[in-house]
Amino acid sequence: MQKKLRQIFIAGLAVTIPIVLTLYVLFFLIRVMDRLLDFIPHQYHPDTIFLFHIPGLGVIATIVLIFLCGVLMKSYIGNRLVGLGEKLFYRIPIIRSIYEGTKQIVDSLFVNKTRSFQKVVLVAFPHAGSYAIGFVTGEARTGLTANLEGALVNVFVPTTPNPTSGYLIMAPEASLIDVEMTVEEAFTYIISCGIVQAPPNGVPKTGC
DSSP string spanning 102-167? Predict the structure, then answer.
């Protein structure tokens, strides 16, 4: 009886934990976006006008703001304003580095996807005999590999369970092992510490 109750409890955890964590992240993002409305003067704030708080207005305001920025960018005047702003940022040393790096990442992900993660590979890391999942991001800069034989490629090796940090490795393409896995499947595998695996049919399964 005790073993059966334990199995039922573990099954309940397996169902509820992903749901609770997903809802927690969702509500956290909604709260953060709602805080953006604090820049509105108190007399014009939606909470003051409607006399109660409406969750999610910050999300709607963020989407509308992004859309308006996109419309502005499509116009000649907006394009000129952005160009002037970029010139100003590039004149400030620290701001220049932050802006340039962020802009290149965003451009590679949304504008020029050919500069984003190209394929999933296995790379010998952190030493020979052990392997880590990596993402090929392009060819290494010639100036960095001038004294080395052969061309090298850039490989981003993310950490787990937080793939937003990781290591940049320059390795010969011949030393990499191609993996039949999409970028999304690889990220899921990394975030779950290898617990969630995607079989050939694309339906995730759990296991070690």
Answer: HHHHHIIIII-GGGS--EEEEEE-SSTT-EEEEEEEEEPPTTTSTTSSS-EEEEEEE-SS-TTSEE
Residue from 48, 28, 25, 50 nearest 38 by CA: 48
> DSSP secondary structure string, 30-63?
HHHHHGGGGGS-GGG-HHHHHSS--TTHHHHHHH
185 forms bridges with which residues in the sheet? none
The pLDDT value recorded for residue 115 is: 52
- What pLDDT sits at residue 105? 64
Q: Which residues contact 90 (CB under 8 A, 6 or more apart)?
A: 96, 99, 100
Q: Which SS3 state, helix, strand or coil, does residue 87 take?
A: helix
* pLDDT value at 171 more than 70: yes
**Tokens found for residue 133:** 């999942």
Q: Which residues are bridge partners to 132 per DSSP? A: 123
Name the one residue in this structure whose structure tokens are 């009886």: 1
Give me the domains of the chain, ranges plus CATH numbers: 117-206 (2.30.30)
Structure tokens at 101: 């790096």
- Tokens for 47, please give them: 């909470």
Q: Which two tokens stand for residue 181?
A: 């896995």
Answer for the pair 123, 106: CB distance below 8 angstroms, yes or no: no
For 42-99, how does the pLDDT look when each residue is reduced to its tens digit (9 = 90+)? Answer: 777 787 887 877 777 878 888 888 888 888 777 878 778 878 888 888 888 888 777 7
